[in-house]
Amino acid sequence: MTEDCLFCKIVSGKIPSYRVYEDDSVYAFLDIYPASEGHTLVAPKKHFGNFTDMRAEDVTTLFEAARKITAAVEKAFSAEGSNIGINNGEVAGQEVPHVHVHVIPRKKGDGGRGIKSIVWTETDTANLEGTAEKIRKAL
Length: 139
Ligand code: 5GP
Ligand code: ZN
What we know:
By secondary structure, the protein is an alpha+beta fold. It has a single domain (6-138), classed as HIT-like (HIT family, subunit A), CATH 3.30.428.10. Helix content is 27%, strand content 18%. It has helices spanning 6-11, 56-76, 128-138, and strands at residues 19-22, 26-30, 40-44, 81-85, 101-106. It binds guanosine-5'-monophosphate and zinc ion (ZN). Zinc ion binds next to α1.
């Protein structure tokens, strides 16, 4: 629990939410400003500001819960698919600095697009081997 963190307060019940799932380490609840009906946020109970701060076991637990919730949300709203993702960092659109996975159910004709509609920058692809090498070196 981190003082002044909105989602820590939601996880601990200090601020009310529409809970859809809870276990020892994960809390999932409806997004109050949904992108589509059933839009759910899946958050670790432990406070992590950023996805890269998480440990392997916490990531595994979080994403297994997100997988289960995705299946349930799609079933509940007869969705044909969903977008599942994290806004990681303020520059990427993260407004609440407590890691959470968005599960956004999708239907044919809903007017939405795919993940590359979030950002599209002109990128030189002449040296993709060099690009891959930079990432390999950073790992
Ligand atoms: P982010 O931009 O950090 O990835 O997503 C934060 C999400 O939290 C937004 O989609 C926003 O609609 C949602 N949100 C903001 N305040 C509240 C709140 O008080 N309760 C709930 N349930 N969702 C919230
Ligand atoms: Zn928090």
